[in-house]
Amino acid sequence: MATSTRSEVTARRGTALARRAVRLLLDRGLMSPADVHRYGMSARDVSESNGVVLVELGNGRGFAVKDTGAPRDGGQGDPAREVALYRAAGGVPGATRVLPRLELYDEDAELLVLEGVISARRLDRLAAPHDPLDPRLAAAFGRTLGVWHRVAAGLPPLRPAHPWLFDIDGPDRLPVLDNDEKLRSLTADILGDPAHLAAKAAVEAAWTPDTAVHGDVRFGNVLIRSSGEALLIDWESAGAGDSRWDVAAGLQEYLSAGGVLRPGGGSDTVAAFLDGYAAGRGRPVEWDRLAEFTACRLLVRALQLTTWLPAPDVEVERHRALAREVVAVGAAL
């Protein structure tokens, strides 16, 4: 009997999800057979870590449909957090400016339907010619994150956001950190590095929930509309937390992509991101321990790269070195 390749299995799953998505949209009246006949329709699998299908009508209206029932590996997020976030944000003025609109959540079908931002492009696919990120896009990204943190402070209570990095030295650490040989080795190396432990301890001591954080900010979770405005997507790590965790994630993403922080001052891109954030938040950036927060985000990425890349050693060591450096040149932040 012939066996299926991984890509073939993934393609079948995407096709099955597309069928479920279209059926739900028709059953719930978000589009009609007449719409499909008149305008035409496409369903595109855009899944990465989680199953997502983009359904688009020929008139430009679209829906992003996410499978909330598929198993998540440890640390990948919790769909219940995302559903709770969208439901809570729907009634808060200003929140819908910075995240897609919730259309519906069907608990029985285990499908989350969001506004399909058809014309938007992912930030990680919009690199500038001479820098990992154009300063104008960095400013839009920062402004959206700041607006979110400002308006989200008024949300109904959400479950606490608890970075899994905090637990790597205790009994509650993610099982994958013990079960995967490379992750187990890197975890031991991090725990044996005084600089890494000091950064982690500083963040844990400073952690002060002040808003609803995204929890997994990365360039791939930022969409840029054709107008230049930014949206945040993929909220499976959202919860009540410290806004510095998200701000530090933006800085970490820039460094991970090859950006540079200089002693005595950051790049124009970093300045644009932080200035945009301050404008959106309506108050200055919280600098206290931001360098340590960024170091911890770099350690999270180092651990992630261990499973993402076929040969991760060079990138893992680069991220660990950046984690030490960013604390040493904290004035640049």
Automatic annotation (TrEMBL):
Domain called Aminoglycoside phosphotransferase: residue spans: 49-293
InterPro entries with a match to the protein in the record: Aminoglycoside_PTrfase (IPR002575), Kinase-like_dom_sf (IPR011009)
GO-annotated molecular function: transferase activity
Protein name: Phosphotransferase enzyme family protein
Pfam families to which the protein is assigned, alphabetical: APH
Keywords: Transferase
Protein species of origin: Sinosporangium album
